[in-house]
Amino acid sequence: MKIKVGIIGVTGYTGGELLRLLINHPHVEIKKATSRSNSGNDVTQVHPHLDKEISLIEDEMDIEKFITGLDVVFLALPHGKSAPLVKEIYNKNVRVIDLGADFRLKNLDEYKAWYEVDHSCPELVSESVYGLPEIYKEKIKEKAIIANPGCYPTSVILGLAPLVAEKIINLDNIVIDSKSGITGAGKTLTQQTHYPDMNDNLLAYKVGSHRHTPEIEQELSILGNTNLKINFTPHLIPMNRGILSTIYTNANIALTNKELEKVYVEYYQDCPFIRLRNKNNLPQTKWVQGSNYCDIAAIFDERTERIIILSTIDNLVKGASGQAIQNMNLMFGLDETAGLKFPGLYP
Amino acid sequence: MKIKVGIIGVTGYTGGELLRLLINHPHVEIKKATSRSNSGNDVTQVHPHLDKEISLIEDEMDIEKFITGLDVVFLALPHGKSAPLVKEIYNKNVRVIDLGADFRLKNLDEYKAWYEVDHSCPELVSESVYGLPEIYKEKIKEKAIIANPGCYPTSVILGLAPLVAEKIINLDNIVIDSKSGITGAGKTLTQQTHYPDMNDNLLAYKVGSHRHTPEIEQELSILGNTNLKINFTPHLIPMNRGILSTIYTNANIALTNKELEKVYVEYYQDCPFIRLRNKNNLPQTKWVQGSNYCDIAAIFDERTERIIILSTIDNLVKGASGQAIQNMNLMFGLDETAGLKFPGLYP
Amino acid sequence: MKIKVGIIGVTGYTGGELLRLLINHPHVEIKKATSRSNSGNDVTQVHPHLDKEISLIEDEMDIEKFITGLDVVFLALPHGKSAPLVKEIYNKNVRVIDLGADFRLKNLDEYKAWYEVDHSCPELVSESVYGLPEIYKEKIKEKAIIANPGCYPTSVILGLAPLVAEKIINLDNIVIDSKSGITGAGKTLTQQTHYPDMNDNLLAYKVGSHRHTPEIEQELSILGNTNLKINFTPHLIPMNRGILSTIYTNANIALTNKELEKVYVEYYQDCPFIRLRNKNNLPQTKWVQGSNYCDIAAIFDERTERIIILSTIDNLVKGASGQAIQNMNLMFGLDETAGLKFPGLYP
Amino acid sequence: MKIKVGIIGVTGYTGGELLRLLINHPHVEIKKATSRSNSGNDVTQVHPHLDKEISLIEDEMDIEKFITGLDVVFLALPHGKSAPLVKEIYNKNVRVIDLGADFRLKNLDEYKAWYEVDHSCPELVSESVYGLPEIYKEKIKEKAIIANPGCYPTSVILGLAPLVAEKIINLDNIVIDSKSGITGAGKTLTQQTHYPDMNDNLLAYKVGSHRHTPEIEQELSILGNTNLKINFTPHLIPMNRGILSTIYTNANIALTNKELEKVYVEYYQDCPFIRLRNKNNLPQTKWVQGSNYCDIAAIFDERTERIIILSTIDNLVKGASGQAIQNMNLMFGLDETAGLKFPGLYP
Question: Does this chain's domain D3-149+318-331 share its CATH topology with D152-314?
Fold first, then answer.
């Protein structure tokens, strides 16, 4: 029996990526999809690469009707738009995986401070789990609401988790310099992401004010059992997919690169999508393009006694839709890798 | 029982693409691989995106030993290098799919004129078939040697075949303007394909002298039962994958765009990898990126009574490794689409 | 005494390019600029690369006030918007260089057919000259209204002019395959020119229906003293600047490549911005990036007795703002190259 | 009287850029050029964008003959190759601007440790000056040997100098995350900089071991009158030109963004090529493309009490050839901006 899936917000890049990945998922049937802009039309109209792979007319948005007969709904919506829908879906006993931000922050004051809106269903926040399978695998199996992590936080938290959990680094001085391809900025047109303005260009943005900051701080604080603050600076890179986070930390103890590598090997021994790299084999974003892998290298710099971590993902896969499917697999008792075990596209 | 596969010349882009596609092929076991530069090392050393997907130490190149136990060998070698190996493999009753140029031209004088070498085993040319499944499906099932088509010819012949076969166009005046991503030029380093020289740049090359010219002429002449000549101009485009061939022809008869579309629909009705587009939905290379599809639109221009055809493929998939696997499927009595039925990566 | 210049429509790419080029023009003083979106602000707000090079607060749009004290006005506006302004400027005896399309077509029925509007001041069309200095140098010196050519037509007409004028080619069978960088599509946001949709992508558009078609036909017909039709297919290339037009023609006479080159050398002997290339030195768009050069190679293909011409320009310079300044130089009796004699940016 | 200039190592990107910039320099005559690979040929053979702008046959390399009649020589050579030539040129009383690394490090043990060769003329190191005009303007006017700074150090030192000099930051905890376009890796072919391997890709390299590290440490230590160590991580970005250095520091004092900006305004008040940006106007590499500007923004992050600095240059201009010419101007008593006062190319 296949899992019956619906997608709300299917016209964006993450919506298209959900379709691409679910089409060949051995245990899934894509039953329904909808969006504000394309209802009544086939999903291939906005996703022409899926022509001959799927044919699915988008429903009008009537949430009650939409979820009838579904086992799980993926939400790919702007922040603030998910929460009310999650409530309705949850109340009908349908599971929901929210690719948006509404259920990621557990502290609702933080949510309000960073997102500048009140949360519309605070009572459900505790019913949700932060859907990072490498850390919350058991909880994900039990919960009905998954808050799928942000793209930057996925790369950063996976890069730092072993060091924070094992208390190998000083938690007062974490600097995170993240670089993202332009699909991370979404499908909405802006002057900055107009081709001529972005091609052969490079910039930092939202210095000190990106909304993924509290998400990273929340998760690292939990892992480190403290209340830490980080510096996080995102950058736009003239490429389509991929995030590279370069993370600078102070080592608490002197350790060799061998020992450092061992910390990661042990921490991630049961994680099929983590690939460990090293100093002589530094991760490149293209190596994970189109795949659900997260490639990580941690390097001990003897001169400065710092550890520098490099962590790469495809922002649309492990940073969004692939991770959402990994979460779905866990929720439904499937192998975590079902439908996700394929290499990326290179070069 | 799985087909036991070996790959010779595995380090190039088409070699890597064969691995990527065969890893998840349901009826294939990748048994062996070899190359000049990497023997003794794992294939993931030069194809890091395949890490955790495959582990395969490359053999030293001893052809007799190499083919023992194999059902089929893929050759991804420069022209002139395949022919002697094909002979040895053929003589041992192992099937062979040659992604190089050595068996594409049936007229050996043409081969010598364009490739500037004598063919080393002319007696086998008639044992081979030009491996374009949309045209030679039945022959491919019977032959032991497949001459896998060139990337440009694949896009061009598929774009023109219905019109040539149905005698809708004047065969004296075919102009082919092809544009290719840079992986088409291979992995070998050149100044022209050095990143700074190629980025944000655009050029034609080998005007009137590209070796895919006689290949296109041969196949169109067979289809049209004539002896035609074409103009073919290849261009390099600053992108990785994809070919767009823009083809200009004179219509023999006046016909509507509807009628024109019907010619293609009928001609390609049994072809799972052909997707027909039209004037309002012109093909884009990114729509086929990473997939085995060939997207085609033919447009009748009333002002000039010409037909303009646009044909797109991913040069490494339908233009090379995907087509090779499609051929393998046919050779071994499998469904043509086995292991190849997935959408491309977009955007 | 410096020429006092005003720019209307200064916020677009061609507006920014006019500023960039005029800032260092030895005989120009940029007096005024205006636009719909930025009046009251400094031009560097939308052109941050010009910071510290110029400071100029944009005027409100009041045409009478605007032109007071000016010697010449550059118009960089969408078609249909220029004509009424040109009339007012002309009536005040100020010269005007229109970078838009309104005065390019001499046949107003053609204008209406292709642009789908009536011309608002047909009486001034005969007062204007098509501003291609390599062909109309003398007329440009005498006229008060310059219709600055389109980017594609500039590359195409310069590529073909010697052959058409010298009657070396058959005028019934001209195929023009043009490729443009994305600045050619302007600064207006569209899904197609959103970075992720355009990066690593390639497409043809407006097949048989691009508005530069009648402009090319008009000028080639005048040169050839006939009434010809062409096939013109524009393509979008993932790069910022540059046009490459690949032009296919039938030779009327057999001629060597040497002889062919001589035709061009003689025709363009007094043209400082034409650079002739050849078969072994095919033009690349990056070689003209940022400069006012047009690089051309013509090749006789013996196999097919066709001549293939490759013509490259920077669409924002020789295809727009640079050519506009070249026209201004001629209008004011200056050396054609004043302010334009510099190499492009490479790589 | 014009300055008579010679260039050794003219075929690389910085050589081409010297030509591009010197061609229109009002006080320079380019007399001679040479290189290992192109002697006897015109410089436009390897720099086709300079066609019609310059014609200059490259000399054979005979240093004594070469410098005869010259006022200054630019050296654009790999490290270790400059030092012996500098000695010969210096001994003939010709001034020399070395774009390579040989005279940048004052501590020869450091030079040996990082460059793994002995310095071939240690006695001349004290005769040279580190050619960063914003800091060493007066010394540059007096010295005969200029050690032109590295591209990364230029962006980093200019970004930090005011804060280090004014003791506003803690010098123990400086993290520098630099991103460079691919021309920074030079013209030499490598697999990593082959177009398909680099396009749409992103990576860090030489983590903790890049040779620009001691250069940055030397200059910041001098400015801060201390002996500091930094973390420096370079990255390759899929674009041609541009460096963005994102620099993380701990503030010693609380200060507003206004106050912070004032520190920079005062420090750089006499520096024509420094443009100060801010939080709402963050620097982008394309804004400096092709120009000699360095754009800088410094931001005080209240949450973490850190200062984040963003500093952008064109690595081939302010990071190499433009800065070399700025140094030449100072050496010969010209205005610092002679030949360099033009905007970059955008977009």
Answer: no
What does the alpha-carbon distance between residue C344 and residue D15 come to, in Å, rounded to a whole number? 15
- ipTM exceeding cut-off 0.95 for this assembly: yes
Nearest CA in chain C to B192: C284
Within C81-181, residue ranges assigned H as helices are: 82-91, 108-115, 133-142, 151-165
| Alpha carbons within 13 A on the beta-carbon side of C245 | 32
Domain positions in chain B are 3-149+318-331, 152-314
DSSP secondary-structure letter at A60?
P
Q: Determine the 3-state secondary structure of C64 from DSSP.
A: helix
CA dist., res. C262 & res. C260, Å (int): 5
Contacts of C291 in chain D (CB under 8 A): 49
Put simply, the answer to whether C233 touches B241 (Cβ < 8 Å) is: no
Q: Do D289 and C345 touch (CB under 8 A)?
A: yes
Q: What DSSP string runs through B133-170?
A: HHHHHHHHHH-SEEEPPPHHHHHHHHHHHHHHHTT-EE
Could you confirm whether domain C152-314 is CATH 1.10.10.10? no
Tokens of C279: 């078969």
Q: How many CB atoms lie within 10 A of CB B60?
A: 9
Is the distance from CB of B105 to CB of B124 less than 8 angstroms? Answer: no
**A151 carries an active-site annotation:** yes
| B222/D contact by beta carbon, under 8 A | no
Task: Output the tens digit of pLDDT for each of chain B's 347 residues.
Answer: 899 999 999 999 999 999 999 999 999 999 999 999 999 999 999 999 999 999 999 999 899 999 999 999 999 998 899 999 999 999 999 999 999 999 999 999 999 999 999 999 999 999 999 999 999 999 999 999 999 999 999 999 999 999 999 999 999 999 999 999 999 999 999 999 999 999 999 999 999 999 999 999 999 999 999 999 999 999 999 999 999 999 999 999 989 999 999 999 999 999 999 999 999 999 999 999 999 999 999 999 999 999 999 999 999 999 999 999 999 999 999 999 999 999 999 99
Cβ-based contacts of D289 with chain B (< 8 Å):
none
**From CA B225, how far away is CA C7, in angstroms rounded?**
61
Q: Is the domain defined by A3-149+318-331 classed in CATH 3.40.50.720? A: yes
Chain B contact for C208 (CB, 8 A cutoff)? yes
The answer to whether the CB atoms of C199 and A238 lie below 8 A apart is yes
Output the pTM of the full model.
0.98
Contacts of A301 in chain D (CB under 8 A): 207-208, 231
Asked if A342 has any chain D CB less than 8 Å from its own CB, the reply is no
CA D172 to chain centre: 25
A55 CB neighbours in chain B (<8 A) are none
Partner-chain contact A290 B23, CB within 8 Å: no
CA A277 to chain centre: 21
Of A239, A289, A299, the CB nearest to D238: A239
